[in-house]
Write a structure and sequence with these properties.
With 161 residues, the chain is an all-alpha fold. The protein has a single domain, classed as Up-down Bundle (AhpD-like), CATH 1.20.1290.10. The longest helix has 24 residues. The radius of gyration is 16 Å and the shape is globular. It holds the Pfam family CMD. Keywords: Oxidoreductase, Peroxidase. This is AhpD family alkylhydroperoxidase.
Length: 161
């Protein structure tokens, strides 16, 4: 399978990607735990049907020490015993924040209260920004049909210059 448009070889898209990667690096430096970041990114990517991002965040989570059991259960997190209450709050937020069109209220007050119970202001800000960023990445990759399977952890490091 080939992408319908190669975003990695287009000059404008590469310039945009540098800024996108810079935003991702800012999130990496946030107080939001890396494990939460990867679980959230993986779940949004699953919901949005983004194979490229699902591949990337599965591999990045594995490289960061995440277990196969937890990665396999992200899509069924409500029925799994391997996630903490804080992780469940983040996963609920990413689901509701990704599926905005499913309800006219967006993120429920109940989910927001759970997020605020488990995350301080900086972590909450990072979580909201992460949900927005991963959804944007998913949409770009789905639009151009960027195929999954070729991602290697760290392969976008060269875009940070």
């Amino acid at each position: 399978m080939d992408a319908r448009f190669d975003m990695f070889r287009n000059e404008f898209a590469t310039r945009f990607a540098k800024r996108f990667v810079a935003a991702a690096q800012l999130l990496d430096q946030s107080p939001l735990p890396k494990s939460i970041q990867e679980l959230v990114s993986l779940r949004a990517s699953q919901i949005n049907g983004c194979g490229f991002c699902t591949d990337m965040h599965t591999k990045d989570a594995t490289a960061a020490g995440e277990t196969p059991t937890r990665l396999h259960l992200v899509a069924a997190w409500r029925d799994a015993t391997v996630f903490t209450d804080a992780e469940r709050a983040a996963l609920a937020l990413v689901e509701e924040g990704t599926r905005l069109a499913d309800t006219h209220h967006g993120v429920s007050d109940e989910t927001w209260a759970l997020v605020r119970e488990h995350y301080d202001d900086d972590q909450t800000a990072a979580l909201v920004c992460l949900v927005a960023l991963i959804n944007a990445a998913n949409r770009m990759n789905v639009i151009v049909r960027n195929p999954a399977g070729s991602y290697e952890p760290g392969m976008f490091a060269s875009l940070t210059g």
